[in-house]
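R.M. (postdoc): so does anyone remember the format we settled on? I'll just put the structure tokens first.
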């Protein structure tokens, strides 16, 4: 009895396979244009494998074990042969692993090699999550006709650039990932990572931050040093941005994302580009964070439905281009496009006394709070990717009790309010220091008073000691605020360590050693009407609390 096969079938909610009897050919040598050789394993049914549609996965995390097996086996058991390749400089493949940098040339060379093999049939599908999705976007505009579909999940065409914004450096994800890949080929790597998770979290508080890699690893990491030294608009990252290629992609694309995934904004941007270019594309977004099991379940279903149908020259079952899990309603809904039609941005204004209303604000004094980067406002739930950290929807009660977090809440809703689309905020703000961050979070407060995060975002200001309007882009969402609930907005100056704490000095993030506390002000008057902008299906009126 193949226990791994049965367990994967159950975890991924799959029907019984065509076969559980597989053969794996290890260490196939795939030459690149510069002479470097990358290694790959080929999984096939024990009989009849030659000529089947091929799924190609290119992975930096190894070709076996927990990362690869659950992705590969279910496909090889249900109609595909699968080639899984270690990317350059990882797990036996030649060259040096320079994250994200060689995936276009190596990916195109690998596709060309596959279609020349005697066991290749007539068609190929590209598949995979996260980094394995990025390698698809990197080559997608130059694919030969044998490639019939792409299924990238929790990924996008400019994978790391959202993290590295000069006005909002996302520390936790790239730092934690850099630590992980630096030690992933050591013996007992996964137990080491689990045991070292607390050390990694402590390392992110290191000053200067340029010493954090040594604190976490015991040695320098070129990747971590580069992310600290170079912002998203640095020439260092230009060749890793494949977003300008997306409109030229001719192959059908089915992407899978999560409302609390680190890559969601870019993923939806990629879908919009395909949509605008008239390409065959669909997207599914669930209530998931980056590593949620639902992502794997849905991606596997898309590979075996959408991918296998196209590989066989058939059309997949008909469905809408956009399928979204509407949180709050807790159900799936289909839409013709992203963002869906019929949702109009509506301003919910901040008011004195901690109220939130669609009414225009009256004259009022600003609200204030004290932010100290030495005791930073913590990240709680939401968009997270770190070992031992819970992301997604969580109780925000303790966070909202902090003196460095302001909250603004509507009256009890007398009807459901449905919000689907891009969410933004305009916060009129002033700090006692020139450098400050503004973090905004949208929450749902239930009838018992429990506040649950929906989406959020952060922007950094460089002239924060002057009153200005901080325009904050929150994560997109699909959420139904139920009747008898309330809508809440949090305003603070950080979410550490998801975002790097702003030291208040303007020093470069890698070398800053001084932390300065600041007094912050949030304005809400007719001339400075702070508001969150929610794409609402119908006009909603709320009353201010007396």
């Amino acid at each position: 009895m193949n226990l791994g096969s049965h367990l994967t079938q159950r975890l991924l909610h799959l029907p019984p396979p065509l076969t559980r009897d597989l053969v794996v050919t290890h260490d196939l040598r795939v030459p690149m244009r510069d002479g470097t050789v990358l290694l790959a394993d080929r999984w096939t049914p024990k009989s009849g494998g030659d000529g089947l549609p091929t799924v190609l996965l290119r992975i930096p995390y190894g070709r076996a074990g927990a990362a690869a097996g659950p992705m590969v086996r279910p496909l090889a058991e249900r109609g595909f042969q699968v080639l899984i390749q270690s990317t350059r400089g990882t797990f036996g493949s030649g060259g040096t692993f320079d994250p994200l940098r060689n995936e276009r040339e190596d990916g195109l060379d690998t596709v060309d090699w596959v279609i020349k093999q005697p066991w290749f049939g007539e068609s190929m599908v590209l598949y995979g999550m996260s980094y394995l999705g990025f390698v698809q976007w990197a080559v997608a505009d130059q694919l030969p006709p044998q490639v019939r579909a792409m299924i990238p999940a929790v990924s996008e065409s400019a994978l790391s650039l959202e993290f590295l914004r000069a006005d909002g450096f996302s520390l936790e994800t790239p730092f934690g990932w850099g630590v992980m890949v630096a030690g992933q080929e050591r013996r007992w790597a996964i137990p080491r990572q689990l045991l070292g998770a607390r050390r990694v979290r402590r390392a992110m508080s290191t000053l200067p931050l340029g010493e954090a890699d040594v604190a976490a690893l015991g040695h320098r990491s070129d990747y971590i040093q580069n992310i600290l030294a170079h912002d998203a608009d640095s020439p260092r990252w230009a060749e890793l941005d494949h977003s300008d290629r997306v409109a030229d992609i001719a192959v059908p694309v089915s992407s899978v994302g999560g409302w609390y995934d680190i890559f969601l904004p870019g993923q939806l941007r990629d879908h919009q580009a395909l949509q605008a270019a008239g390409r065959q594309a669909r997207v599914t977004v669930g209530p998931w964070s980056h590593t949620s099991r639902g992502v794997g379940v849905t991606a596997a279903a898309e590979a075996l439905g959408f991918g296998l149908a196209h590989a066989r020259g058939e059309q997949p079952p008909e469905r809408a281009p956009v399928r979204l899990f509407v949180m709050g309603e807790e159900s799936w809904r289909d839409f013709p496009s992203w963002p869906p039609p019929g949702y109009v941005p509506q301003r919910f204004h901040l008011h004195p006394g901690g109220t939130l209303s669609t009414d225009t604000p009256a004259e009022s004094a600003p609200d204030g709070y004290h932010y100290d980067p030495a005791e930073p406002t913590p990240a709680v739930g939401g968009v997270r990717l770190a070992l031992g950290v819970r992301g997604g929807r969580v109780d925000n009660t303790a966070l909202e009790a902090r003196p460095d977090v302001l909250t603004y809440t509507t009256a009890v809703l007398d009807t459901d309010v449905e919000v689907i689309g891009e969410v933004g905020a305009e916060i009129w703000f002033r700090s006692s220091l020139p450098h400050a961050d503004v973090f905004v979070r949208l929450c749902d407060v239930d009838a018992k008073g429990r506040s649950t995060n929906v989406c959020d975002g952060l922007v950094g200001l460089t002239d924060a000691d002057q009153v200005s309007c901080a325009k904050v882009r929150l994560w997109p969402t699909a959420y139904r605020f139920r009747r008898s609930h309330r809508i809440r907005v949090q305003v603070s100056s950080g979410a550490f360590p998801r975002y790097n704490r702003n030291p208040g000095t303007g020093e470069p993030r890698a070398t800053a050693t001084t932390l300065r506390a600041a007094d912050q002000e949030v304005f809400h008057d007719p001339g400075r009407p702070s508001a969150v902008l929610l794409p609402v299906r119908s006009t909603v009126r709320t009353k201010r609390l007396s």
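R.M.: ...and that's the designed sequence above, right after the tokens. Also worth knowing: Residues 162 and 313 are 37 Å apart (CA to CA). Residues 293-311 form the longest helix (19 residues).
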